[in-house]
Amino acid sequence: MMTEDNLKPILVTGATGYVGGRLVPKLIERGFKVRALGRSLDKLKSRPWATSPFVELIAGDVFDKPSFLKAAQGCRAAYYLVHSMLPGQKDFEQADRDAASNMAAAAENAGLKRIIYLGGLGEDNPELSKHLKSRAEVAEILKKGKVPVTELRAAMIIGSGSASFEILRYLVDRLPVMITPRWLETPSQPIAIRNVLEYLAGCLEHEETKGQTYAIGGTEVVTYRELMKIYAEEAGLPKRLVIPVPVLTPRLSSYWIHLVTPVPASIARPLAEGLRSPVVCPEHRIREIIKQNLLSPREAIRFALSSLNGDQVTTHWTDAGVIRPVEAANAGDPAWAGGTVLKDERRLLTEASQEKVWKVVSSIGGKNGWYYATWLWGLRGFLDKCFGGVGLRRGRRSTTELQAGDALDFWRVLKSEPGKNLLLIAEMKLPGRATLEFNLEPAGQGKTAITQRALFEPHGLGGILYWTLLLPFHHFIFGGMLNQIGKRALP
């Protein structure tokens, strides 16, 4: 029976994140109206589901209580999919407390019927890392409010683009011989992302889950070492030699992961620390309520590889985070608030159509490289990794498509207007802020004018010296890259 409550939207916080970005379309498929909350309206608008008549996009920040209170008004229920396990987040524990408190207050103020929260298995273990303890604390803060909370506790989530899966695949892909910590023998019960989404959506359809806490996991209990073996077999790789040693601490392991994989140490460390304690479902009550085909670890890895090979990664662990506006990126603006803005601007006229040029521009980076002096880009990425930066290995979510908020090697997509404009902001370690922009305009008779613009706001004398020292390379790298774009766009 349709009621007034059933017509109200479901609030999904973290809608541009890894889980939230996949949950929104699943809820739409089931007939729910969704209010998607994210800090960047541009990121929300770029999602494939953004134009659905069943979706309302709203910009807001869980750390900004007034905007959060406004976002929750008129909603029926909310999914809380927010965490502060992000690079550069210093006091993540307090940030998580503040955000959870705001969620509880917003839910009560708006008269929500329930909150559904995705937490982690093993949260009751006193030896857990600070990040995982923080997740348990978030659950307790939410439950202290007046709105009933459904908590789902999961171990490792296996899916294309998840941080855990990216660590696994890069380690096994790149290292035929691995020196590993002993806790790789710790048992865990990983779960496929599709099963997580089914449980999240299913809870909304089953009133008996309200106010309950459930452990969710896949069909098998395995060790991380066994997962490595399974991955190698599914990826068609030779057998990997794994040598466990007692001296690799989670801190040292996270630095190694940082160098070998795209995942930074700040995220790798809590994930590595989580492997020290067994994370196995103590009960399976939810399986009797929400029935589904649970995947084994091998099946989950097989599906994830299939999505990667088919270029069907809908969300990625790098999606989380805010897009910071850069005033200097607007070519019509004066110098950055009266300060110094250094610029390298080049134009090229090509016989190729805008459509063909855009296809080349929007495919840049990742496996396709940067079209010219790729080894220099690789060297810059390696140096960035050595100094704690993101490096080039983050790659890109899709080989052909870019949307606002996407990671692109050591850049982030600020704006992507198909056929017209691509604007990137640098996320590598720099003594300043940098953007790289490609602008396409029709030039008559089927020709296209390409404007390539690199802007840099130096931080002090060090930033100016950095730019000056690289000037000889700019002509070589930027000029070569633009020429290659023009050539590749030609028939």
Structure in a nutshell:
It is built from 15 helices and 19 strands.
Question: How is this structure best described in words?
Answer:
Strand 1, helix 1 and strand 2 form a beta-alpha-beta unit. The strands form five sheets. A seven-stranded parallel β-sheet has the order 3-2-1-4-5-6-11, sandwiched between helices. The protein is an alpha/beta fold and 491 residues long. The protein is globular, with a radius of gyration of 23 Å. 37% of the residues lie in helices and 20% in strands. The longest helix is centred in the C-terminal third of the chain and has 30 residues, at 460-489. The model is unreliable at 325-338 (pLDDT under 50). It has two domains: 5-312, Rossmann fold (3-Layer(aba) Sandwich); 330-489, Alpha-D-Glucose-1,6-Bisphosphate, Chain A, domain 4, CATH 3.30.530. The protein is built from 15 helices and 19 strands.
Draw up the topology in text.
Elements: E1 10-12, H1 20-29, E2 34-38, H2 41-45, E3 55-59, H3 65-72, E4 77-80, H4 92-110, E5 114-120, H5 130-144, E6 149-154, E7 157-158, H6 163-174, E8 177-181, E9 187-188, E10 191-192, H7 193-205, E11 213-216, E12 222-223, H8 224-234, E13 241-245, H9 250-260, H10 265-273, H11 286-289, H12 297-309, E14 342-350, H13 354-361, H14 374-386, E15 407-408, E16 411-417, E17 421-426, E18 432-442, E19 448-458, H15 460-489
Parallel strand pairs: 1-2, 1-4, 2-3, 4-5, 5-6, 6-11, 7-10, 8-13
Antiparallel strand pairs: 9-12, 14-19, 15-16, 16-17, 17-18, 18-19
